[in-house]
């Protein structure tokens, strides 16, 4: 016990002092941007050697760099062949052209399920001779608990209708989004919406104004979905919109039960089918019959689409899948045994179990949803750096690295670090909140040697490009230098 305590104390001292002096360009940029040195946490590693450490053991808000934790552990635990799956099932029987019984739409964390996919599944019923459904449409979201984490949750910010704020559940079609096409003349605003939903229309309470089309979002107000007495729903847009302007925008304003039911009715009607029931929430009973299914793309594609554009909904879907699903080589995935424990708690436990298996101390780690869109999530630069080291050793290292934005080329880094030695070479996940700017990933130095790079700024003054300028200066410093390693190797902390 004393030996372990001494080792932990030694490691803490090394990480706190080794190369604690910030490089001159970085220190100067901090001062220039009005940011204190204690707002920055950094750990740069070359192999197992420390290149630069500054407050590396401090738990910090990571913003979207937390997606690296979620995607790395997902690849390791679920495997590259993992897929989410949606099923159409029934306990009824097909008699002549009728399904006599409920039709069950069972969600399985299928992040790709679109309206076209739902139509293809319904077409499969059509091919089986079904023209009438004499029962209800049962929506099964029971894979995750609670089944509707979005209900009653206060909005994260002032834009709850925006896609980046979408809270997923195990059964989402089109991610519950409506795409709106807005085209104005000098006197009139024309609106179109996709997909078409049964008895759902769109209208405007917007005022046309003289303004630059590029500033249209300045006048945007929260839209609403108004239920009419006859059961119809009207989506109403509010605010102002420039004259002679054309823009498209996707919004999440319909209750997701309404969305699925009305999309189902629209698609089934277009196929010539009849449905006399209603949509209800429930679960697929044991022994129900599979009628049709859809599977998502394989996990590496989802990981790439999570990290390159920094997709919160995909990250949250993968995080909850860690608490609910396991790989199944034959079918893509299978559900873990049900318990009363929230799925997010099981996902958190799965992440910690993996980290401890990599001998990474998880003390101070806080995971709320796995996307970084959180005021609560915390990670130390040290934990993130050791996770990135494990990523280099992983069987799925190519898939993990290829998911990260490339400096100056694509994703959320396409406009950053252009014209620097890091451009086209560094692969880094970005993270941005009102008070957070972060970068984490891999930066080759001037000798072409890969460096694990983690840098986080937590400060109320981090916005308006201030924190970004500091981190870009730090990336540039690493990319330009062929720095000698620290004299003594530092391994990940050994857990008791």
UniProtKB/TrEMBL annotation:
Q: Which residues cross the membrane?
A: none
**Which InterPro entries does the annotation name?**
Beta-lactam/transpept-like (IPR012338), Peptidase_S13 (IPR000667)
Recite the UniProt keywords alphabetically.
Carboxypeptidase, Hydrolase, Protease, Signal
What organism, scientifically named, is this protein from? Massilia varians
* A single GO molecular function term of this UniProt record: carboxypeptidase activity
Per the UniProt record, the lineage of the source organism begins with: Bacteria, Pseudomonadati, Pseudomonadota, Betaproteobacteria, Burkholderiales
Q: Does the keyword Signal apply?
A: yes
Q: What is this protein called?
A: D-alanyl-D-alanine carboxypeptidase
User: What family classification does the UniProt entry report for this protein?
Assistant: Belongs to the peptidase S13 family.
Query: Which residues constitute the signal peptide according to the record?
Result: 1-20
PANTHER family per UniProt: D-ALANYL-D-ALANINE CARBOXYPEPTIDASE, PENICILLIN-SENSITIVE CARBOXYPEPTIDASE A
Q: Which domain of life is it from?
A: Bacteria
The record's Pfam families line, in alphabetical order, gives:
Peptidase_S13 (PF02113)
